[in-house]
Amino acid sequence: MHLPVGTITNVAAVLAGTAIGAVAGRRFPENVRTTVLATLGLATAAIGVRELLPTDQFPLVLGAVLAGALIGELIGIEAGLYRLGAMLQARFGGAGADLDVEVPEAVDLEPDHGRFVDGFVIASLVFCVGPLTIVGSIQDGLGDAQLLLVKAALDGFASIAFAAVYGWGVAVSAVTVAVIQGGIALAAGALDGLLTDPMLEALGAAGGILLLGIALRLLDLKQVRVANMLPAVVLAPLFVWWWG
Asked: Model's pTM, two decimal places?
């Protein structure tokens, strides 16, 4: 088994970027932080649209997203993530965390516990949704860290911008990155060759829809419960395998 160098580098990049952004963000006035948040929203929307374009299996992807959202709502993935974020803040962020935190109705730029949890949830979704996470982690487990090294650089810069707005909660998303990418890397032998190009395109398209939902949240247009749609990332390639 190969050491997952790409995943380790990715985690380190998120932590380093968060440290830079959290320290620098304190110096920014609210109007600058608001503009940074809007820029992140537009960039996330652009990436989401880019991920949607390659697939020719959009009806199956749409069905997977709808089915995934139903499953996510029934089991309450987003609420669970927010509770996990509150628990992590209580562990790493000091006293004052509310373990009964609810999913917010809008993005809050005030320096309270809600911003910490928002940073954890939103950064975790952005860093772990998309085909680069899956393919890069498989290759990392097989000894080729190139894709994840590229992703590490992208996530490092993104974490600077996120931390400038949300603070140290972004750093905790490194745990999500380590668990998801590390787990895929460990299972690389079984997953290698399992995902065909159409399946990867469907996975990317489902991830693109989720990224568009995140963009709506960052732009404060609609509080989409994106985490509840996460099962779609698994269902989309399965739907293409079954019916594509």
From this structure: 0.85
